[in-house]
Amino acid sequence: MSTITQYANQYVLDLVAYQPGKPIEETARELGLNASDIVKLASNENSLGPSPKAVQAMQQAAMGAHIYPDGASFALRSKLAGMFGVDFKQTVVGSGSSEIIELLCHACLHEGIELMAAKHSFSMYPIMCKLFGAKYVEVENKADWSHDLMAMLKAITPQTRLIFITNPTNPVGTMVFQEEMDAFMAQVPEHVIVAFDEAYIDFADVKPDTIKYVKQGKNVILLRTFSKAYGLAGLRAGYGITTPEIADLLNKARTPFNMNLMAQAATVAALDDKEHLEASVRMVAKGKKQFYTAFEQWGIEYIPSHGNFILVKTGRGRDVFNACLAKGVILRHMDGYGLPEYIRITVGNEKENSRCLEVLREVLK
């Protein structure tokens, strides 16, 4: 008997779907636990929560929920243009920066074309690449786990259209710095768009200047999100800063009203709440020290991170994940990233971190 799948797009049939961190509610149902007793440190969310100003803006916006939102996201894009010193036409917004990644693929990829990224990068890159029938080119990292930009240069072919530089990289947490980045950008050919995926840049002590490449007119896009440092993951909001030409391509490919009313209101307000952003960054910096101190005392290998998460070598990542999950602590095993000996821990508040360490120590014993 035939099924409808035999007529489906083969690229979709061949995909392995993206696996998000396990939700609190699902864990509570499965394990018979109270949701309030569960600690989730799996999805690099912000335990401080959203800015109170963003919450107030959403409450006010809710009264107009019966009207379509501004299709051009004028208020948000105008604020972003002012922040980065670019023209309004150089801004793009989306339902998370992941939507802008998809728009880039819509604009650039098809059979015979290549997308390049470093090994152990964001798992949506290969998923999107395969969805459009393109070839995914994965370049080995350096010994310190950071992107090898010179190796990426050598791997560029006439078919290469997109290169993703994830900075800081997820799930590893390493960074590429200015000198190496400048050398790389000086040699990238004109037929390639370089996407600097900077979802975690707010947590980095040193922030390379990537906006200068946009202002120089290079084929570059900066990707940012409101899901991490701004604590608005549930709204799905992100943006890109790029050249007018690339922005025009992406705006042609996006769906109408792709950023909802609440997201537009909340993000504009969040950008004005610098105190909340700084508090989020301080919380993560303090939390990383809390974890590092414990891991060093236990003799456990970890990778110092420039993001709000830590990659930790446990030797049996999925087993550790399952054992912690049974005790009400949700972490992230790294099988999907080709790192089966590791888990990734989101840095939360002090109470969440302490509970995580307590359970992790029990499990590792």
Task: Describe the 3D structure.
This protein has 365 residues and is an alpha/beta fold. The protein folds into 2 domains: 4-49 and 275-364, Aspartate Aminotransferase, domain 1; 52-273, Type I PLP-dependent aspartate aminotransferase-like (Major domain) (Aspartate Aminotransferase, domain 2, 3-Layer(aba) Sandwich), CATH 3.40.640. 40% of the residues lie in helices and 15% in strands. The protein contains 14 helices and 13 strands.
Describe, in short, the structure shown.
The protein has a seven-stranded mixed sheet with strand order 2-8-7-6-5-3-4, sandwiched between helices.
Topology diagram in text:
Layout: H1 10-13, H2 24-31, E1 39-40, H3 52-61, H4 74-84, E2 91-94, H5 97-108, E3 114-118, H6 124-131, E4 135-139, H7 149-155, E5 160-166, H8 178-185, E6 193-197, H9 211-215, E7 220-225, E8 238-242, H10 244-253, H11 261-272, H12 274-298, E9 302-303, E10 309-313, H13 317-326, E11 329-330, E12 332-333, E13 342-346, H14 350-364
Parallel strand pairs: 1-11, 3-4, 3-5, 5-6, 6-7
Antiparallel strand pairs: 2-8, 7-8, 9-10, 10-13, 12-13
Helix pairs in contact: 3-11, 5-6, 5-10, 12-14
Key attributes of the depicted protein:
four-stranded antiparallel β-sheet; alpha/beta; 14 helices; 2 domains; single chain; seven-stranded mixed β-sheet; Aspartate Aminotransferase, domain 2; globular
